[in-house]
Design a protein that fits this description.
Layout (H helix, E strand, L loop, with lengths): L3 E14 L2 E14 L3 E5 L6 H8 L7 E6 L2 E2 L5 H11 E4 L3 H4 L6 H12 L4 H14 L15 H12 L6 E5 L7 H18 L2 E5 L11 E6 L2 E12 L5 E9 L11 H6 L6 E5 L4 E5 L27 H10 L4
Helix pairs in contact: 4-5, 4-6, 6-7
C-alpha cells in the first residue's frame, strides 16, 4: 500500500459570526497517497477552500483529524507550523498578486522563497531556481517582473516558487480561475509535469472541467463532506490507439453513510426517508416517504390444511351402518 501524504477523518470546521454558526466542513474524509495528483471540485460554499486552508496550515479544524506529510495539523504548535509551511507544503493562489512579489523578477521571487525558508543550501539555490524555470518553460522570462508576464507565465512562475523548497505536497486554489481555456490547459499541464518529474503530491481545487485530462482522480465535495470520486484510466487497444475511461463512485464513510447524487434523488423523488433492500450483489434504494408507491405485494402460496381425523364410531352407530348396508 502506498504511503499517505494527506489524511483527513471526520474533519469539522465551524465558523461563528455575530452569534451564527456556519459548518463549512461536516465530517469530511479524504485520503491522498504519495505522488498522486487529485482534483477537488464542488459548488461554491461546499467547503473546498476551507479544506485547503487547513491543509496549508493557514487555519485549524474545529474537530476531527488531519495530517499532511506526517504532521498532525490539529496539534501543531507555532514553531512546527512555521516549519511546515516553509518546507512541507507549497501553495499556489488564484490571484497572481498573492503568489509573486511585484518588484522582484521571476528568478528573484524563487530566491526570496529560498532566503525566507533557509532549507536549501545557498550554493544550490541558483541552480534549483533555474531548473524549475526551465522545467516549467518560463526560463526565457527569468529576469522579467510579474507586470511583464502573461497570466499563464505568472502562474507557472508561481508554481516554481511553490516548489522552491522541495515540498512534499503542492496545494493549488483555483490556479486557472483567471485564465482562458488554452492558457488553463498549459498551467494544468505544467502542474502535471511537476507532479511526474518531482513526485510531489498535488491537490488542486478547481472549477475547470479541463482538469479531467490531467488527473486520474477527482473528488467532489458536497455540503462539507466528500460525496463522490471519479477514477480515470487510459486503455490501450491492440492497434495502439488509446481511450480515456472514467467511473464515478459514491464515497462510503466509516459510519456507513453515503450521499446519493442529486440527479438520482431528483429522478426518483427521494425525500425524507427511503426503503432499503439487501440483494445478493447490491442494495436497493426505494422511495419511502408518505404516499410513495409501494412495490407489488408478493403472493403468499396457500398451505394445504390436512383433514381433521374422524371421530371414533359408537357401537350403536356401527350397527346402524351395517344394517343399512345389508350386513349382518
Amino acid at each position: 500500500m502506498s504511503a499517505t501524504d494527506i489524511h483527513c477523518e471526520g474533519l469539522v470546521r465551524i465558523f461563528t459570526a455575530q452569534g451564527v454558526e456556519v459548518q463549512a466542513l461536516q465530517g469530511l474524509d479524504l485520503r491522498v497517497d504519495a505522488g498522486e495528483m487529485v482534483a477537488l471540485v464542488g459548488a461554491s460554499g461546499s467547503g473546498k477552500s476551507t479544506l485547503l486552508g487547513i491543509l496549508a496550515g493557514l487555519d485549524t479544524p474545529t474537530a476531527g483529524a488531519a495530517s499532511v506529510d506526517g504532521h498532525d495539523l490539529t496539534t501543531m504548535g507555532a514553531k512546527e507550523r512555521l516549519g511546515y509551511r516553509r518546507q512541507s507544503v507549497g501553495f499556489v493562489w488564484q490571484q497572481s498578486g498573492r503568489n509573486l512579489l511585484p518588484y522582484l523578477t521571476a528568478r528573484e521571487n524563487i530566491a526570496m522563497a529560498h532566503a525566507v525558508a533557509r532549507v536549501v543550501p545557498p550554493r544550490e539555490r541558483g541552480p534549483i531556481g533555474d531548473d524549475l524555470l526551465k522545467m516549467l518553460s518560463v526560463d526565457h522570462v527569468a529576469d522579467h517582473r510579474p507586470s511583464q508576464l502573461s497570466g499563464g507565465q505568472k502562474q507557472r512562475v508561481a508554481i516554481a516558487v511553490a516548489l522552491a523548497n522541495s515540498p512534499r505536497v503542492l496545494l493549488a486554489d483555483e490556479p486557472t480561475g483567471e485564465l482562458d481555456e488554452t492558457t488553463s490547459a498549459e498551467v494544468l499541464g505544467a502542474m502535471e509535469l511537476a507532479n511526474k518529474e518531482r513526485g510531489v503530491t498535488t491537490l488542486i481545487v478547481t472549477h475547470d472541467s479541463g482538469v479531467a485530462e490531467h488527473v486520474d482522480r477527482t473528488v467532489r465535495i458536497r455540503d462539507g463532506r466528500t460525496a463522490t470520486e471519479t477514477l480515470r484510466s487510459t486503455l490501450t487497444h491492440a492497434d495502439g490507439t488509446t481511450v480515456r475511461t472514467a467511473q464515478e463512485y459514491a464515497v462510503l464513510d466509516r459510519a456507513g453513510r453515503l450521499q446519493l447524487p442529486a440527479e438520482f434523488v431528483g429522478a426518483l423523488n427521494l425525500r425524507e426517508r427511503v426503503r432499503l433492500a439487501l440483494e445478493p450483489d447490491h442494495v436497493e434504494v426505494r422511495p419511502g416517504h408518505a404516499g410513495a408507491p409501494t412495490p407489488d405485494a408478493v403472493p403468499v402460496p396457500a398451505v394445504p390444511v390436512p383433514d381433521a381425523p374422524a371421530a371414533p364410531l359408537t357401537r350403536a352407530e356401527a350397527r346402524r351402518r351395517l344394517e343399512e348396508g345389508g350386513g349382518r
